[in-house]
Amino acid sequence: MRTLLARLEKRFRVLTFAGAMLPTMGALALQFVAFTVTARGLGVQQFGRYAAVLALAAIGVELVGLGGADLLVRGTARNPASFARYYGNMLLLIAGTLPWVVLAGMAVALGPMQVHMRLAALAAALAAEIASARMSTSLESVMVAHGHTVAAGWVRMASVLTRLGAAVLFFVVLDGHDLDHWIAVVVAQSSLLCVACLVVGSRLYAPPQWSLVRDEMPTGAAFCVGQVARASQSNMDRVVLARFADEAALGAYGAASRVLQLGLFPMQVVTRILYPKFFVHGANGLRASRHFALRTAAPAMLAVGLLSCFAVLLVARFVPAVLGKDFAQSSQTTMLLSLALPLIALQYPAADALTGAGRQALRAGIYTAASVGFGLLLAAGARWDGVFGTTLAFIGGHGLLAAILWGATFVCRDPASALAMTPSMGSNA
Fold first, then answer.
1. Is 364 strand, coil or helix?
2. How many angstroms separate the CA atoms of 427 and 203, rounded?
3. Could you tell me where the DSSP H helices lie in 295-359?
4. pLDDT above 80 for 414
5. Orientation angle between helical segments 179-204 and 2-63, nearest 10 degrees
6. What is the pTM of this model?
7. Alpha-carbon distance 264 to 354, whole Å?
8. Residue 216 has what DSSP assignment?
9. What whole-number distance in Å separates Cα of residue 228 and Cα of residue 208?
10. Please, is 119 exposed, middle or buried when counting C-beta atoms within 10 Å of its C-beta (0-12, 13-18, 19+)?
11. 310-318 contacts: CB < 8 A, separation 24 or more?
12. Rounded-to-integer distance, Cα 49 and Cα 53, Å
């Protein structure tokens, strides 16, 4: 009987993953089309400028909300009746932190990065990109917290569709090419998407209770620090190159980096499925959480990372043909960057094992230190050999971080009370 139940559970996990992957793979294809239309429409130099803004926005997304989405997933997974309270807390934190994050991003862009854009255009681009990404990913978190992983994938699809529609309208139908005008279109698209996400979340589940969960804000901040550090490692390369490379080189590298981002989506699907389970196993201590990571999460993530690497390698061959001859340098850079995907995939299980076992502060500390070291490594690579040096530093940095995270899961020990509660290895399979 137990064997039959185990087979059924395994089949259910496979079906869940396949169902979640269907909209995600569709979103991947559509996002690549949207990226292609945008890059060709703006040209390599303007796209280089915009790539620097997108890199800053990707980091800012994780700052906005101060970990409110992670608190919602954890709180709702443990007690579904608390959803409305955590939902309101998340939305209030997003509204309260967005303006400050945009101002900080502008200071970095105009200062260390030396991005040449008008103040109004820069502020609008950062606000629109951060707000739309934060609200759509927050709605995905809401659905994941309720176990609706497949529906969360369709949110990603809807988000990409609205951006693709905006790109086709501006670059193809209206034959636009100016970056400032494109930013105005992005602001309109972002505003509509944010309102839609708020309405869908409230209608499908429950209206938010407008109050802050003050006693859990330190935990949310710890979640936030870890997420910001992870986002920094995925986007700091373009932030650094904005200072050390010209706009054409940055545009070519930014195109390669955008192709690489497509390879990260399948990993995010697996993570959304497995992430709540780490809290269940982690309630019995780090040993149980680590065992779940080794037996279930790590093999799945590594397989997806290798497949993503192979897919990006294939796509890289066609980048110049799709984007134009000005992006020829992007092909080789994309191939090299793809080697980091399996290393990135292996980071998730170890990091989530720490979080699930209540070691979020340790995870946040590792990521914070790693983000500083990563930035220094990228800067050294950029000064050494421009784009090529930055690429090698990117790969090496992710490999080192994966080793540190897994080392932490084995070095740390459970307190005596947690060890007494931890079930045998066989019960965690």
1. helix
2. 39
3. 298-316, 319-323, 329-338, 341-356
4. no
5. 140
6. 0.76
7. 21
8. G
9. 25
10. exposed
11. 311/262, 311/263, 312/259, 312/260, 312/262, 312/263, 312/337, 312/338, 312/341, 313/338, 315/32, 315/259, 315/262, 316/256, 316/259
12. 7
**Closest alpha carbon to 240 in 222, 254, 255, 259:** 254
6's tokens? 């185990």
DSSP class of residue 171 equals I
Distance, CA of 279 to CA of 360 (rounded, Å): 11
d(CA 301, CA 239): 28
**Residue 207 DSSP one-character state:** P
Residue 66 zone, left/alpha/beta (φ > 0; ψ -120 to 50; rest): left
Identify which of 113, 241, 247, 132 has the alpha carbon closest to the alpha carbon of residue 185: 132
Q: Which residues contact 198 (CB under 8 A, 6 or more apart)?
A: 91, 135
Residue 157, SS3 per DSSP: helix
pLDDT computed for residue 24 by the predictor: 62
Distance CA 94, CA 131 (A): 8
Query: Which tokens is 412 given?
Result: 């740390």
Query: How far from 80 is each of 143, 275, 366, CA to CA, in Å?
Result: 12, 16, 31
CB 51 within 8 A of CB 238: yes
The torsion defined by the Cα of 344, 19, 6 and 1, in degrees rounded to 10, comes to: 180
Give pLDDT, residue 90.
Answer: 94
> Residue 98: what pLDDT?
96
Three-state secondary structure readout of 372-427: HHHHHHHHHHHHHHHHHHHHHHHHHHHHHHHHHHHHHHHHCCCCHHHHHHCCCHHH
pLDDT tens, residue by residue, 223-266:
888 788 778 877 888 888 888 777 788 888 888 888 888 788 78
How many other CB atoms are there within 10 angstroms of residue 107's CB atom? 11
Name the residue with tokens 């940095």. 397
